[in-house]
Design goal:
- The chain is built from 8 helices and 17 strands.
- Helix content is 38%, strand content 27%.
Length: 429
């Protein structure tokens, strides 16, 4: 389930990342701030305040205005300008979130290819005085707009702070850079090298361009989303593994308890079981209760269970040739030989006559076949009394599903019959 959620979430994050960058690069994050007659106040200013004789006026035409001025070269710094007041007082507008300014200006000048000056005046109590208008920082650019050239888009980083202003107001170096976080006035003025004559500045459009979200912020957002998702799924996976571990531990505890019960029953079985008086092995009656429990346990817990059906080859011939006493000795020796080779968890039973069964809990067919082959080889190569050659045939079967014990032993008996049919001294399954 977590893998499915992870796949879906990954597809979502990939889609979101691609879509967000397409949205950004197709202009979805763009924003504009246009200076209009509704959000600003326009005034004409000239050098008369400094003792000059320049005359200026503003004419309005729909969405544009034209500053006309006749400059007389009588003041120390003759000029005329359009002052755009964004707010009243010292509380301005934060333009630091915009990356460019667009200026559509038509400029007629008495000087060829004359430039205009554009100031973004920023008020900061660290260096400004509300009673001194000149104390607001001069963020300045100069460019030649010409006439009919349309919108000029200029990066905000192109603005420089005027050096005379820094010197006059003794502004420390750490505060001398461009600043746009509280712009109160925008000024568009004639150039630095004017001469007497007529000048017109037609202001068609002033607009600031920015982004609702920067590309770096969008990148950080996407990285953050991926990191949160990764951490969330790692936490969920850790929680899932801990839950699975608890289930496994609980299951292990249950199996351990079941094994302990079976072990205790085995101990009780050992103490109370009936043994074959001749060979000392268990007999049928001794394993009836145990068989019921071990088969049920094997089925419920999907544990393998196998049995080996052993028969001493030509045992009747031994009895007929050497007598029943010798036959009994062979049976005792065979039982002792087998008991020395089987595990403690295996149960060895004399089933009748010269037939024996070994029950092997927790053992699959392949392992039981290996045990059978070992016992067959040991029996064949054992030094029997009177130099007799004794062999055995073995049939092996493994419990299948909900199979009954009767069916299991019948299949083992069939395998034993096949071993005898094919020449004895064999192991068949």
């Amino acid at each position: 389930m977590i893998t499915q959620y992870l796949r879906i979430t990954t597809y979502f994050l990939i889609s979101f990342t691609v879509a967000s960058y397409l949205w950004y690069h197709l202009g979805g994050a763009n924003k504009e701030f246009v200076i209009t007659f509704q959000n600003a106040t326009f005034k004409n200013i000239d050098d008369t305040s400094q003792g000059g004789t320049t005359k200026s006026k503003i004419d309005y035409d729909n969405n544009s205005l034209t500053l006309s001025c006749s400059i007389e070269n009588t003041a120390r710094w003759p000029f005329c300008e359009v002052a755009i007041e964004l707010t009243e007082g010292i509380k301005g507008i934060d333009l630091s979130q915009y990356h460019s300014i667009g200026l559509d200006i038509d400029y007629d000048s008495a000087v060829s290819n004359e430039r205009v000056r554009v100031y973004l005046r920023n008020y900061d109590p660290a260096y400004s005085d509300k009673n001194d208008p000149v104390s607001s920082k001069f963020n300045a650019i100069e460019f030649a707009p010409g006439r009919g050239n349309g919108l000029h888009v200029i990066p905000m980083q192109a603005f420089q702070v005027l050096s005379w202003w820094i010197a006059d107001y003794k502004v420390p170096i750490e505060q001398s850079g461009p600043q746009f976080d509280n712009v109160t006035i925008i000024e568009v003025a004639t150039g630095s090298n004017v001469k007497s004559g007529s000048y017109t500045i037609k202001l068609n459009k002033v607009v600031f361009f920015g982004d609702w979200v920067s590309e770096s912020a969008l990148l950080r957002l996407n990285i953050l989303l991926w990191m949160i998702t990764a951490i969330t799924f790692l936490g969920l996976e850790r929680w899932r593994l801990r839950c699975n571990l608890k289930v496994v531990e609980q299951r292990t505890k249950q199996l351990r308890t079941a094994n302990q019960k079976l072990y205790k029953k085995s101990l009780a079985f050992e103490a109370l079981a009936f043994k074959d008086p001749l060979t000392g092995t268990k007999n049928r009656r001794a394993v009836e209760s145990w068989l019921h429990d071990i088969l049920e346990y094997s089925r419920d817990n999907n544990q393998p269970f196998s049995l080996l059906y052993l028969d001493i080859d030509h045992f009747k011939l031994i009895n007929d040739s050497y007598g029943h006493h010798k036959g009994d000795e062979i049976l005792q020796e065979f039982a002792k030989l087998v008991n020395q080779r089987i595990r403690k968890s295996d149960v060895f039973v004399r089933w009748g006559g010269e037939e024996f069964i070994i029950f092997c809990p927790g053992t699959a067919l392949l392992g039981a076949m290996g045990l059978g082959e070992l016992l067959r080889s040991i029996t064949e190569n054992y030094l029997w009394c009177d130099d007799l050659v004794i062999t055995c045939s073995i049939g092996v079967a493994e419990l299948e599903g909900s199979e009954s014990f009767e069916s299991l032993i019948q299949r083992a008996d069939s395998a034993l019959y096949k071993a005898k049919k094919y020449g004895r001294n064999r192991v068949e399954a």
